[in-house]
Amino acid sequence: MAIVSQKSKFGSIARPTMAWVVGLIFFFPIFWLAFTSFKTDADAVKPEFLFFFTPTLDNYLNMAENYDYWRFAANSVITTTFATAFTLFVGVPAAYAMAFNPSRHTKDILMWMLSTKMLPAAAVLYPMTFLTKNFLGVFDTHFLIIIVLSLINLPIVIWMLFTYFKEIPKEIIEAGKMDGVNTWGEIKDILLPLAWGGLASTALLCFIFAWNEAYWTVRLTTTEAATLSKLIEGNRAPEGLFFGRLSAVSMAAVGPIVVLGWFCQKQLVQGLTFGAVK
Description:
two-stranded antiparallel ribbon, 14 helices, 2 strands, globular
């Protein structure tokens, strides 16, 4: 009995300690970024200990006054919100059809959609830029960024929703049909309330992926639809990187999404584990 008690006591201390160590390792880049944002560009490159510097708000004040931060932030909010909404608008019916009305090609279609994520983005950069600039005339527009972000995240959204919907007994949907509920009613009144946790986590992940997307938002915009990723990329010069200003801009870009993820972590974990193999 004593051995079991000792093991249990050790485990109760070791597991939380390891969890804190791993958490601090993952959080350290954000921690370093936050401290660097309060340094001048000169102090940011000095090989000194982290805390030995004079804090300054000049980087944030300069960002707000000279970098037009709020316009870039508004573009990020607009494109991310509408891209998430449009992705769910397309993904929910698609996942519903595959989960409750599957055909012999359903698995092939799901694998094909997932395979599109394996395509290197650089492989289609030139045709995307050429078409949107010379033929479609939508280069550097909110419409283009919303469509691109939606198509990037659509395969993952459909896969996640398909997994959640498969956990719902098909008999519930069939009972709704027998009561005369149409397809839209099945989705709105039966399916979505039952899979609300999975839908919320999917929407949150889609929002995070769209907000963090940098490759396409940098290369398909110049000024009008430029997001915070473009603002971060703009802190480069032939002289090098301005680490103090770059850290402030990066912190202002990642801060909102970090806070959102922190407050929604319960829903996120619940949704990600919904449908998991028990």
